[in-house]
Write a structure and sequence with these properties.
- The complex is a heterodimer of chains A (402) and B (223).
- Chain A has 402 residues and is α+β, with helices and mostly antiparallel strands.
- Chain A is built from 14 helices and 12 strands.
- In chain A, strands 4-5-10-7-9-8 form a 6-stranded mixed β-barrel.
- The radius of gyration of chain A is 32 Å and the shape is elongated.
- Chain A starts with a helix and ends with a helix.
- Chain B is α/β, with parallel strands linked by helices and 223 residues long.
- Chain B has one domain: P-loop containing nucleotide triphosphate hydrolases (Rossmann fold, 3-Layer(aba) Sandwich), CATH 3.40.50.
- A 6-stranded mixed β-sheet of chain B has the order 6-7-8-3-9-10, sandwiched between helices. In chain B, strands 2-1-4-5 form a 4-stranded antiparallel β-sheet, covered by helices on one side.
- Classes of the chains: A alpha+beta (402), B alpha/beta (223).
- At the A-B interface, helix 1, helix 11, helix 12 and helix 14 of A face helix 2 and helix 3 of B.
Chain lengths: 402, 223
């Protein structure tokens, strides 16, 4: 068999029956383009989210939340995490190199010269500057002394600064949080929107002692971030921290924890799981388009087999075996699908470039989406071509030539 | 060249039972002969042609083609034999539409190991006098020219036997004469040709005539 001639013949059919080829390829082009766009954007969005988490939650950190995962009497366990707990952890575990406790108020009125804004107030220790890798762009971070004495100083986000002060320099100015006066000590470095959707540039940070004693009057903290000496020690340290907290909180063996511990790998895993909608299910809807495309191709090809029955008979008369006839038709559907798949990838890339220019400059075509698109096209070609090819191969030459 | 013994073939009838089309055909065709098989329509000419061309298998009988028994072979081997030994010419030409003359003639070479298929196809077209129509589509050719393309296609694998089933059935008198002249020329070149026709006048131009009637064959000498 002369394979080059057979292939040339298949391609010839496609170029000579242009309208027919156009309709065969349309579904694949659209389906593959949709697949490439959705997959690229989905994994792009996921990567963006993972990057954000990475920024907030570096590989060698552990996050402790004051609330247990288990419910008690229909309510979340209120928890009893304290700064003393963290100090105990720091004492007992030498791999813990730094930590920062946090307490937050979801919303409180912040005021400057008649301008009001409802903002999230977060209390941190002075170590947050390093633990959270977020310093100030103007002014100074609050000091250890500020924390020790629960001073009324505040750091404000860049958006807060713009909203309350417009073009004035906020550093050194007096604001009110609720009814208490605070002195603005600095402006926080821009951070953007966090994975929970909160704008971290529109909030106020105060010393943790100030928020605990002066604004809330509580002993327990909301959460804490612990930095360990290396990422490899994170999992083991998380287990040790749990043990220490269980003992300190007097929890019986079968009692559920009244705290939760998160490690970066856990968070990444849950983010990936939550993002499956974007990275798997949404692209899979393009699969429906491709499935329909496969049916259309199979249909057009079956009609083609019927129209070309004399051709099949003739080819058999001049020496084609059943297998060769089958291959010819399968080759035609594969040629259509692979070529349309490539066009679809190109179209998807074009759409992504357009999106990058107009909406989201971060948008990129991902290599896995290209491979996914081409493989999907190939699969469609095989699925769509198989039945018509078989049908063609099994024609009796005598019947076909009649 | 061809030896048939007691070839029988029947087809199922719509009302059950079977229709016996060939009731025991015996015939010998020597290499280099130009034989006409004649008979009224429905007499089993085409069935016989299909069996001779290895497109169909008889229910019974023996068939030796160039010394080889060809009954009971696998479909793949039959396809190979058709490709190498037999050239077909049909009444409806059976040219592929939207495919040039050269590409049509190349078709049997797709299924062979022949080298330089395009050169061979061009040569075959030159032999039937279509050297100036190589890249024409069937729709751009006259009936006689289309049939000559089909003959070139039959010749391109250089087969010993050419089977022509009513090759001039769709042609006018002038084209018919041209095609018959072409067959005679090929026959003089040493090729065995079997022409199936119901036209007595055409049959008379062949070297011998086999008359099929009542499912049997009667050998006649040409006039």
């Amino acid at each position: 068999m002369n394979k080059r001639l057979l292939l040339a013949g298949s391609v010839r059919i496609l170029t000579r029956y242009k309208l027919r080829s156009f309709f065969m390829s349309l579904g694949i082009v659209i389906g593959v383009a949709a697949l490439v766009v959705m997959r690229s954007m989905g994994s792009g969005a996921e990567q963006e989210m993972l990057d954000k988490i990475e920024r907030m939650f570096s590989a060698s950190s552990i996050f402790i939340m004051n609330t247990g995962g288990a419910m008690r009497g229909g309510l979340r366990n209120p928890g009893q995490l304290t700064i003393d707990d963290l100090e105990a952890i720091d004492d007992q575990l030498e791999q813990v190199i730094d930590w920062d406790p946090a307490v937050s108020i979801s919303s409180r009125e912040v005021q400057y010269q008649g301008r009001n804004r409802s903002l999230r107030i977060v209390g941190h220790s002075e170590r947050a500057e390093f633990v959270n890798e977020r310093s100030v762009s103007e002014g100074e971070y609050f000091s250890k002394a500020d924390v020790r004495s629960a001073s009324r100083v505040a750091l404000i986000g860049s958006k807060t600064a713009a909203a309350l002060f417009e073009d004035q320099d906020p550093v050194g100015k007096q604001i009110r949080i609720g009814t208490s006066p605070f002195r603005v000590k600095g402006i926080l470095e821009p951070h953007g929107v966090d994975p929970h959707g909160m704008d971290r540039d529109d909030e106020v940070h105060v010393p943790i002692t100030t928020i605990m004693r002066r604004l809330l009057n509580v002993d327990i903290i909301g959460s804490a971030k612990v930095i360990v000496s290396s990422a490899a020690e994170v999992d083991e340290t998380a287990d040790r921290i749990a043990e220490i907290l269980q003992v300190r909180h007097g929890l019986a063996v079968d009692e559920p924890d009244d705290f939760s511990i998160y490690t970066p790998t856990q968070v990444q895993k849950s983010v990936k799981k939550a993002n499956r909608v974007l990275t798997v299910y949404l692209p899979a809807t393009a699969g429906i388009a491709l499935f329909v495309a496969a049916i259309v191709i199979a249909n057009i090809m079956l009609i083609g087999v019927r129209e070309r029955i004399a051709e099949i008979g003739l080819r058999k008369a001049v020496g084609a075996t059943n297998r060769q006839i089958g291959w010819q038709f399968l080759l035609e559907s594969l040629a259509v699908s692979v070529i349309s798949g490539a066009i679809g990838v190109g179209m998807g890339a074009g759409i992504l470039v357009a999106i990058a220019r107009t909406m989201n400059p971060e948008t990129r075509i991902t290599p896995d989406s290209i491979i996914l698109g081409l493989v999907a096209a190939l699969v469609v070609g095989i699925l769509a071509g198989f039945l018509p090819a078989r049908h063609a191969a099994l024609q009796e030459p005598v019947d076909a030539l009649r | 060249m061809i030896r048939l013994r007691n070839i029988k073939k029947s087809f199922p009838r719509p009302d059950r039972g079977r229709l016996e089309v060939l009731k025991g055909i015996d015939c010998d065709i020597e290499a280099g002969e130009f034989v006409a098989i004649v008979g009224p329509s429905g007499s089993g000419k085409s069935t016989l042609m299909n069996i001779l061309g290895l497109l169909d298998q008889p229910d019974e009988g023996e068939y030796t083609l160039a010394g080889d028994t060809v009954l009971g072979l696998r479909a793949t081997d039959l396809a190979r034999l058709r490709n190498r030994r037999i050239g077909f010419v049909f009444q409806q030409f059976h040219l592929l539409p939207r495919t040039t003359a050269v590409e049509n003639v190349e078709l049997p070479l797709v299924y062979s190991d022949a080298t330089e298929p395009e050169n061979r196809a061009v040569n075959a077209l030159c032999r039937v006098g279509l050297e100036d129509r190589l890249d024409h589509y069937p729709s751009q050719l006259s009936g006689g020219q289309q049939q000559r393309v089909a003959i070139a296609r039959a010749l391109v694998t250089d087969p010993e036997l050419i089977l022509a089933d009513e090759p001039t059935g769709n042609l006018d008198q002038e084209s018919t004469d041209e095609i018959m002249e072409l067959f005679c020329q090929l026959n003089r070149g040493g090729r065995t040709i079997i022409l199936i026709t119901h036209d007595q006048e055409l049959a008379a131009r062949c070297s011998s005539i086999l008359r099929i009637a009542g499912g049997r064959l009667i050998q006649e000498e040409a006039a």
